Amino acid sequence: MYGAFLLTNGFSIIAGCVGLIPFGTFASSIGFLENTKVLRRAALLAGSSMLIIAGIFPVMSGSLAQLPLPVGGAVLFAAYLQMFGTAFRTLQGTTFQSKTIYRMALPALTGISIMNIPASAFGQIPPLLVPILSNGLIIGVILVILLENLIRWDRFDPAVPASSAAPSAIPSPAPAMPAPAAAPASPAAYRQPNNETALSSSKCR
Length: 205
Description:
The chain is built from ten helices and no strands. It has helices spanning 2-17, 28-36, 41-56, 58-65, 69-90, 102-115, 130-133, 136-150, 162-165, 195-204. By secondary structure, it is mainly α.
């Protein structure tokens, strides 16, 4: 994993130095993996090779560039469906209240609102900030990072009732111990009477 991050960032730096668009990972890749169930590297190498060949020959890259946007949107739609399932599985067991709902609703609604703002509204913003501020996904992710690191959401969780948290004041009675078994009779009890006892018994006769 460390090597993958190192190579990705290294090629991104090299691409920026020569004026090319750097390589970037997409969250939709998780949806593709869950849809296709193809986790082998051979499939990734085949797809990467096809893109490299298409980039070398302008005819092939031009045909891909002429694809209408709804085609790419339809492909991403299938991937994002699986991402919704991943998000809901992450939220399982989480209790939302009037305060903790901001943890999820604020980034989602803010990102959707920014996506619906026309591009002309960002005309007065510096050009370096337009790609960030006009992207609802980036703003939503930034809000998630800030909310998760600056706010302690555990203090808003409902308190555990005292009756269930405190132990009982009356101790339960100890279980009755079984009575010890009787000791076996000593072998001395089975010995023959001594001489004095035998003599007294013969006089009585």
